[in-house]
UniProtKB/TrEMBL annotation, chains A, B, C, D:
Homotetramer. Pfam families: Beta_elim_lyase (PF01212). Keywords: Pyridoxal phosphate. It comes from Croceibacterium mercuriale. Belongs to the threonine aldolase family. This is Threonine aldolase.
Length: 331, 331, 331, 331
């Protein structure tokens, strides 16, 4: 009974169907009909014009989204818990050619206008001090929490006022939308680019970068090629993304994962380190308690010395969630 | 009847089978059982210890192979026709952080010890002049020709004598092996790393970097992550590679593509710009002749003003090859 | 009466003499006789074999020292107050091609083995997490404090044990040596490279990178050229460094600056934020107090909202130091 | 009697005077009064508004001029003989983060619109092919020849028409102006930036980047700091540049060097490989002839197997030039 990560979840049957259907000859790279359909499909989802690029990993999506926003002598403001800072093997430094990540704190891994304003006030403008060019936030956050529409509005107001680009790492965007009972546009807010997650949500190997600014996308297309990310049989990536949008499969999968997390959360109330708003639970557990759970066959990661992280996915079985909830309640 | 490129060929049924079989939960990234099996599988193929990394594109394979060999102030010697120079959107400059490609000429897109020696002799050793750290060659070459074992031996002798690393871009390695009637080790010669092509040869989205030097592989693993190339469901890439080795599918597919090319070549003898040793034909054709072929439904790329390139693949249909051969003969 | 910074101090008369004496034709770049004399001159100073490169700025010295130590996928451990982190316009990101600076805290801007050990313990070894390859410390620190020999020994023991390179930013190395009443070797400890400051200490435009590892120097020489730092009339940089060593001018200048700082420190005891061990004073002062000082003609930088930084130099006039001491005492 | 290179020439007395005069305390970096005077001084020289940055080397000047023009996925068109390609240790790759130099041929190391147009026509526009963003030319060229105003006009027309930036490496700009009997604006033509050489022309350690586009200069200022090129006592670099402009010292020095070269050229007519239009002579000479000259005490570089390069400078003594002329005539 694995609750290690959603990034190893099974591939959804409808994704498989789409992959098989894509195995007809077509133009290489992103010249195929499926890749060409992405802009319209995501445009319909967000209710505005967008330019969409597929990539094979979330790390590449985040970095290729940020690369056109930030020059090598610039910086990106992000939360200290951000995936780009902690879990991407230095990818932002590589893709942005040495630009910095500037870390900002805040509860539940959320950035707030107050924290950002304070950080910005501490940066003199001279050439001795690296200047930020963009902000990146994560929806849902690395601690399983969801930005509300008004929080997003406040962040974009700040970014617009400062001339900063705004990017959303939406590795768990579907979980956020499911929690908010909101459409994609509302869940995203006014961003310049969104990394729209698919792999953790039932895909095999495709993420989408949704650019709300066509000029950024034009640069990103060249950077994608230069980064060795332009697959020759791109039709198989586009197919996954289109299948994910079709009939709102993405949202259904996000709801399923959230539901499993919510069931588990119900039995651990006071042990929770953060509200459970998406598909991740951070639970205070002693060594002995963690051992006891592992002895019962539950898989999960330690979270520091006295807590654990449990992640559900679209394919988490009802009985497994129930079993974990029960086991936690009995500790 | 498409002869545009092998990089859009269909995915082989046995690759599909392997992909479906891989859809069981396993550890993420390259921690799964299939990824773990790659070293042994390729080790058996080459008859020596190797360290193997999957990537999603040939560009990434080439650049991640070269990155551990060449510092940012160094250079790579390659043929002026090399894919790394001409078709990778500047990827080597990105992955090698500004290191240079030094171009060398030679017939059939082959590097020779003589041409390399002359180029090396022209580089003073002082700090004003960028020094080469590696040589990269392509097997089969970008002009469809195959290095013979003795040619490879001469190149590796030169590289060893000069303290240069040696890399082989094997995007069409299977076609070379099929032409040589040789095993993988003989087709490769004494390299430090090989980009073992799979996608043009019936794969979907996986190439292998075969390192014959474990230290280089250790660096490349970190660089792969930093480059956003470490997919979380890596089992689907490993599965493709294992299926390709299983029963020597790679070689069978290479032979099929070569056979189609050979049949076509038989009808265009004097028009050929280069010997047809793999699955590419470069044929002298006037504008009118190219138009005539296109009117008959043949797809291919122009090659300069008075020639065309035809590429066959593992799935080129016998009747299409025959039709093209006939059409060319009748010009 | 300026106490803004030592980096605008006048050029020492003996440096001027050396510059004029160097204006005879010689080989360009670092092929001249003066540049060739650096290794021996610094070797005598440190009592061991060294390889020395001149550069025109401290930022270049620090970054060219670190560049051969750290690959693009690596990191450097430094104090959160370090000059490389705060005041170099992102230079480490540029010179190290995206490698990270990992920040560690500690009083008086000093790194301790305890703080480093704790930071290292928090870095998992997998490819997802950037690994440190070097530590850099500043002597005297950015807060005007001096590492004692036993502190340096503890840091180098840690670095050796972990396989990390160790670099010292010695922008104010002379001030540290003067404080310790120690020779250069003792003030430096067991480093792999030292940025030996000259410009803040009476030079015009030359800093030295002293490599205690010849292999690092060989790489740095190429990186210096690639960074556009190899001046064609290098004899004028070497001349400054040789003059600085001649008769221990560096040490005399450091002592002079320290003496001025000590005099001022004597009148502000409880207001000091950090011990005054070199030539910088950090003094708690209200807005009104700072204004009062400025009204009396004293120049200095604010240090946050309720403090100020005063810096003395080799050419701080005795009467100015006395005047500032008196003015501070009278607040 | 040295004719090796102008880059080791003595420092002009008026430069020394200016250096000494600059040794009064002033604001650090480029905040001093001398640095602040550069825009107006060069603006007067070129008859238009400019933004000027000092740097310590020509390599840095060239690369910092190009860095704001070219993204990491772009390229610079230059002559195959260009200094940026051949003699800068890979600096453009470093400063431009992997962007390419695209080489173009042409007699006398000059680029022509025809050669550029042919090169551009060979670059498909897709993401697989690196796109040029700038052209750099050298005035006088690396082979000692001078672009005429109409040649410059044709190049800038091409650049404007293609949306390419245009940069001039003016390491020997004074020699070109002296040859043309033209003012600075005419010698430069319609560029976006000019590396205005000073060091080969009697300076010690300062070059100027003259930006004719203020937006480029704003980026370059940050990149200069990030590249460790922002010296803290910048007043000493500004002083050299101002002294060079004062009373047109730059032009007088250029004329002196040219006159010496012209005298020598008069005695070697048919042996010349290129017209002598500036201060460099490329002379066909056998091994024996070169040896004979060296036996007479002349210093110079070999230029391939059967030629030699002689360079004069502002301080070449009349009698040395005459002696060389005579020696060459007597061969």
């Amino acid at each position: 009974m694995q609750f290690l990560s959603d990034n190893t979840a099974a591939v959804h049957p409808r994704i498989w169907d789409a992959l098989r259907a894509a195995d007809a000859p077509d133009a290489p790279y992103d010249g195929d009909a499926l890749s060409a359909a992405l802009d319209d499909a995501f445009g319909a989802l967000f209710g505005r014009e967008v330019a969409v690029l597929w990539t094979a990993t979330g790390t590449a999506a985040n970095c290729l989204a940020l690369a056109p926003m930030v020059p090598p002598h610039g910086a990106v403001l992000c939360h200290a818990e951000a995936h780009v800072e902690n879990d991407e093997g230095g990818a932002p430094g590589f893709f942005l050619h040495g630009a910095k990540l500037m870390l900002v704190d805040g509860p539940d891994a959320k950035l707030t206008p107050e924290a950002l304003t304070a950080r910005l006030a501490a940066i003199p403008q001279g050439v001795h001090w690296v200047q930020p060019h963009a902000i990146t936030i994560t929806q849902a956050t690395e601690l399983g929490c969801v930005y509300r529409p008004e929080e997003l509005a406040a962040l974009s107001a700040l970014a617009r006022g400062r001339g900063l680009y705004l990017h959303m790492d939406g590795a768990r965007f579907a979980n956020a939308a499911a929690f908010l009972h909101a459409d994609a546009a509302t869940t995203c807010g006014d961003m310049d680019a969104l990394s729209f997650g698919c792999i953790k949500n039932g895909g095999m190997s495709a993420e989408a970068i949704v650019f709300f600014d066509a000029g950024l996308a034009d640069v990103a297309r060249r950077r994608r090629k230069q980064a060795g990310q332009l697959q020759s049989k791109g039709r198989f990536l586009a197919a996954q993304l289109l299948a994910m949008l079709d009939g709102d499969l993405w949202l259904a999968n996000g709801r399923a994962a959230n539901a499993a997390a919510a069931e588990i959360a119900g039995s651990v109330g006071e042990r929770l380190l953060h509200p459970v708003e998406a598909n991740e639970l951070f639970v205070r557990l002693s060594d002995a308690e963690r051992q006891a759970l592992r002895d019962q066959g539950f898989g999960f990661y330690d979270w520091g010395a006295d807590a654990a992280r449990f992640v559900t996915a679209w394919d988490t079985r009802q009985e497994d969630a129930t079993a974990l909830a029960r086991a936690l309640a009995q500790l």
